[in-house]
Design a protein that fits this description.
Layout lengths: L6 E6 L2 E6 L10 H16 L5 E6 L3 E3 L4 H5 L17 H6 L5 E5 L2 E3 L2 H7 L2 E4 L4 E3 L10 H7 L5 H10 L2 E3 H6 L5 E2 L5 H12 L2 H15 L5 H11 L3 H11 L10
Parallel strand pairs: 2-3, 3-5, 4-6, 5-7, 6-8, 7-10
Antiparallel strand pairs: 1-2, 8-9
Length: 256
């Protein structure tokens, strides 16, 4: 395996463990980090000995979403020439997995962090974790997260989360159908789920993921969602939102 800068991986008893390891930046994903995640998941997907993928993160924040500075200015990003570049969103990368995945969040999930958390087959959180979609506060909109939220809740409720931009608790996330469960101290539910998955037929499960992808492949227009985000990042309101955030002032929206 090639050297990875922003994630850590290890395999244990048929489980491919991937850990977000950019805690100094609250695990915000840069283009290089996305490439590394794609590279690692492709390895897991192509290895018949891997039956389950588990995603975790270092530090107090699971993921703060997109590193806007790194996406706007490639010179800010630390490249990894050993890793192939991809032109896909995180949601699309995870959608290519033919194996079950579990996301375990022990820190807050913010903005584009939802793309990782909601893309996994199962999502568990510790009781203190908070979830938030603050994009509208800086003139953006979580287009791709909206697409994933609509797999878990009605359209109006999904839009409401994106429009309000408020944070909510793990308990609220469970009530909304986003979480598979809230973990206790022993993380019993997580241990039991892993054991259940690993004892069942891996080929049958893999074929199930292939079938599921075919069933809904017309529903998700990743290119459209990425283009919508790129267009919004060019607006005056986004620039205003970013400046207001940096200077800790109220934004003056111009709707342009």
């Amino acid at each position: 395996m090639e050297k990875l800068n922003f994630i850590k991986v290890h395999v244990e008893q048929h489980v491919f463990n991937l850990t977000l390891a950019r805690s100094d930046k609250r695990n915000a994903f840069s283009p290089t980090m996305v490439n590394e995640i794609a590279y690692a998941l492709n390895l897991a997907n192509s290895n018949p000995d891997i039956r389950l993928v588990q995603i975790e993160a270092e530090g107090p924040v699971f993921c703060a979403g997109m590193d806007l500075k790194a996406f706007e200015d490639p010179t800010v990003d630390i490249g990894n020439p050993a890793i192939p570049k991809v032109e896909k969103s995180l949601a699309e990368i995870f959608a290519c997995l033919d194996k079950p995945s579990i996301c375990v969040v022990r820190g807050d999930v913010i903005a584009g962090g939802f793309l990782i958390a909601l893309s996994c087959t199962y999502l568990f959180a510790l009781p203190h974790v908070r979830f938030s979609l603050p994009e509208v506060k800086i003139g953006l909109f979580p287009f791709q997260v909206l697409a994933l939220l609509m797999e878990y809740m009605p359209e109006r409720k999904a839009m409401d989360l994106c429009i309000r931009g408020d944070s909510f608790s793990a308990g609220d996330a469970l009530d909304k159908g986003i979480l598979s469960g809230i973990l206790d101290v022993e993380e019993t539910a997580l241990v039991e789920l892993r054991e259940t998955i690993l004892k069942n037929a891996p080929l049958a499960i893999s074929r199930g993921f292939v079938a599921l992808r075919r069933l809904k492949e017309q529903d998700y227009k990743y290119n459209f969602l990425l283009e919508s985000l790129a267009d919004l990042r060019k607006t005056n309101d986004f620039k205003e939102g970013m400046d207001a955030m940096r200077n800790k002032r109220k934004a003056n929206w111009k709707n342009s």
